[in-house]
Structures are given as structure tokens and as C-alpha cells.
TrEMBL record:
It comes from Algoriphagus oliviformis. This is HNH endonuclease. Signal peptide: none annotated. Keywords: Endonuclease, Hydrolase, Nuclease. One of its GO terms (molecular function) is endonuclease activity. Residues 201-259 form the HNH nuclease domain. SMART domains: HNHc.
Length: 276
């Protein structure tokens, strides 16, 4: 029986899109429009506590969808012209490379079967078919899972994402005032999110990412060497300052470091243990 927690990681354009997301989160002014798109796409679900489809997952999917669509359109228009000029080159849509990598049984050649005198309008129809059938969404989801797998390890980037959301929390609420999903009970009278129970799957993810060590002082708190050590799952961006109840906003701390940090917004630790 297939384990649903295991997935094939092809690393298809993973670092390309990871870099784009990093640029957005670190303030690249040329990418500011993608933040507005994300607010529209994510809706009120961003306020729901500890969804496995985390706020960061949704952000990755939104950005990748926008960029992939732009990339394939721009690339295919240029490549189509080139192939028309030089018949030596065979046209292959940008998206078909992803279909091949991810083992999705769909291609432009199949779409064109029985057609002659191919025109650019055929390619435009193919784009529509790719969107309607859900193949485009499937590619976005596969890439987003791979990107999340890579960037979740970067606590600094996790902090940047949550800082960004915290700084625009009122905008997210205003954008979704007419949403069918009523999230008013999740907020305090001050307009920040109430503390929510952290599920075990979220604790497990953060514990293994942080190697069972306090991310500040690197004390071992796995329970293997020091059985009485307590683990604290700390919000990098405090809820009182607009933080989310999201797995991307958690880090592992020991009791001493958690007490020292308190409710202040402290930069996350960038200390990591080398592989060897």
C-alpha cells in the first residue's frame, strides 16, 4: 500500500521558483503584484489554525501558478516563431516538459492528432484545454510541494513570510469581509488571532526540521539524551503582533530560551548543524 506521506521529488524547477519566492518575501519591488494576487487567492482560509494546506503552501501555489503561466506563454510565443522560421526545430510547449517529468499523460502532439496546417490558435486552444482538464493545476501542485519541501527548512524565510502576513493582517481581513467562511470567532477583540491548539503532525514536522534541538542555544531536547527536557513550539511572529497559527510560523525552543524570548518578536535562529 502506498504511503501518502511519501512523494517523488523530481526537483523540477524547484530552485528557480524557490528563488522567486525568496525575492518576493525579501522585498523585491518588481514582485509586489504577486502579493495582491495571493490575498485574493487564499481567502479567509489563511486564518484557519494549522491546516495541512498551510498558508505557506497556498502562497507557493499562488506564486508558482502566476509565474508558470507567464513563463510558458512568453517562451512558447518566441519558440513558435523560431520553429516557423527554421523547420529544423520542432516546437514543443513549455508545459509539456513538466508533463513529461511528472509522468502526466498529455501532450501537444496528442492534442493535434488528426489536425493539419497547425496555427498558433491551435496552441491557444491547447492552453485552454490544459487549464480546463486540471493538468496545469496538477503541475503547479507538484512543483509547490517540492518548493515547500526545500524552503520549509529555511527558518529565516519562514519568518519573512509570517512577517509579511502579520504586517498586512488587516488587509487580509478587509479583503475577505464578504467571504462565506466566518472566521470572526478566531480573532481577539484587538484584531489578532487567538492561540490555537498545535496538532501533533505540526509538532512532528517542526521537531524533525529542527533536529530535536533548541534553535537558539542548540541544546538537545529530543528526549533521547535528556529525558526530562521540555519542548516549546514557539511562534516566530507572536500572535499578539499579527502572527498566524501556521506550521510555517513555529520553531523549536527549550524552556529557558522560550522564557527569555517571551512574547517579543525576536529574529529566528539561523544556526544549523552541518551534515558532516
Amino acid at each position: 500500500m502506498k504511503n501518502s506521506k511519501i512523494f517523488d521529488n523530481n526537483f523540477y524547477s524547484t530552485y528557480y521558483y524557490s528563488n522567486i519566492i525568496s525575492n518576493i518575501l525579501t522585498g523585491d519591488p518588481d514582485t509586489i503584484g504577486f502579493l495582491s494576487n495571493f490575498r485574493e487567492n487564499v481567502g479567509s482560509s489563511i486564518f484557519l489554525p494549522y491546516q495541512k494546506e498551510s498558508a505557506l503552501h497556498s502562497f507557493c501555489r499562488s506564486v508558482i501558478s502566476d509565474f508558470l503561466h507567464e513563463d510558458m506563454t512568453a517562451y512558447d510565443e518566441e519558440d513558435w516563431k523560431l520553429c516557423k522560421i527554421n523547420s529544423y526545430f520542432k516546437f514543443r510547449p513549455y508545459i509539456d516538459n513538466a508533463f513529461s517529468v511528472f509522468g502526466l499523460n498529455w501532450s501537444f502532439d496528442e492534442f493535434l492528432e488528426g489536425k493539419s496546417n497547425h496555427e498558433f490558435s491551435d496552441l491557444e486552444e491547447y492552453y485552454e484545454e490544459v487549464l480546463i482538464t486540471g493538468y496545469f493545476e496538477e503541475v503547479v501542485n507538484r512543483i509547490a510541494d517540492e518548493v515547500f519541501y526545500v524552503i520549509f527548512n529555511n527558518r529565516g524565510l519562514m519568518n519573512d513570510f509570517n512577517e509579511l502576513v502579520a504586517g498586512n493582517l488587516d488587509l487580509y481581513r478587509n479583503d475577505n469581509e464578504d467571504s462565506d467562511l466566518d472566521v470572526s470567532s478566531l480573532f481577539t477583540s484587538k484584531g489578532t488571532l487567538k492561540r490555537a491548539h498545535i496538532p501533533q503532525w505540526a509538532k512532528n514536522a517542526v521537531f524533525h526540521r529542527d533536529k530535536g534541538q533548541c534553535t537558539f542555544c542548540l541544546k538537545e531536547i529530543s528526549g533521547v539524551l535528556t529525558p526530562n527536557s521540555k519542548r516549546h513550539y514557539d511562534h516566530m511572529v507572536p500572535l499578539a503582533e499579527g502572527g498566524l497559527n501556521d506550521v510555517s510560523n513555529l520553531q523549536l525552543l527549550c524552556g529557558t530560551c522560550n522564557q527569555t524570548k517571551g512574547r517579543t518578536r525576536t529574529p529566528p535562529s539561523l544556526k544549523y548543524i552541518k551534515w558532516y
